[in-house]
Structures are given as structure tokens and as C-alpha cells.
Amino acid sequence: MSKILIVDDDADIVEAMRLVLEKRGHRVSIAGDGNEGLGKARAEKPDVIILDVMMPGLDGFEVARELKGDSQTRSISILVLTAIKDKMGFDFKKESADPNWLPVDDYCDKPLDYELLLEKVDQLVRHKKN
Question: Are 91 and 65 contacting, i.e. CB atoms less than 8 angstroms apart?
Fold first, then answer.
């Protein structure tokens, strides 16, 4: 059973994701903002973090960079949720010195396609176990 941490401030989306992921057999924990997400990631060491980009306070960009820059959490897979990818021009897949690079493993566009979300989470879990 895989551990999934959802970091998102939208309670309705979080609840829908929790239900879908738990039905698939994952254990799910939830953080409502970036600071709480960092704390839970460090304490719980989940297999995958589903991370919203746009949150008040510490946003998903900052959380991802903090986690991937920390030797204790850099191996945790991060899947970001975003409705702004095309507008912002961020490259979620290419590691480079470009300031527009976001160090995550994959992303899902909003509005969410829950089947695609499950596929991506399952891929990240399988990759981590190999």
C-alpha cells in the first residue's frame, strides 16, 4: 500500500482525490497549505506528493524546490496540479538552470481527469519501487 500526501487548499478537490485514491488502495494524508505540506512530507516520507501550484502563503513552486533541494525528501515523487502551465511557461519535465524549471516528476492539468490522475500516481509509485 502506497502513501500519498495531498497538499492543496481546495477542500472539495482534496476530498474527491482522497476518495479516488483510497478506493485504489492508497493511504492518503492531507495538508491544507505549503508549510503543513513540508512538515508532513518530512515526517511521513510519502511515496508520492500531489501538490497544488497555486496556494496562499508558501506556494507549490516553493514547496517543490524545498523538497527536491533537501537530501531527506528529494527522492519523494511530486505530481503537481495546475491550471496555469500554459500561461506561465513552466517546464515541469526538463532539469536545467532555467529559472522556469520546476523540479517535479509529473503534472496533471486542472480541471482534473481522475483516471489520468490515478494512472500518473500509479506510474510514480511503480517507478519509486523499482
Answer: no
Q: Please give the residue range of the domain that contains residue 109.
A: 3-129
Domain count, the chain: 1
pLDDT tens digits for range 14-36: 999 999 999 999 999 999 999 99
**Residue 4, class by beta-carbon neighbours within 10 Å (0-12 exposed, 13-18 middle, 19+ buried)?**
buried
The grid cell for 49 is 506528493
What pTM did the predictor assign? 0.89
Q: What is the CATH number of the domain that holds 92?
A: 3.40.50.2300
C-alpha cell of residue 118: 490515478
Residue type, 45: K
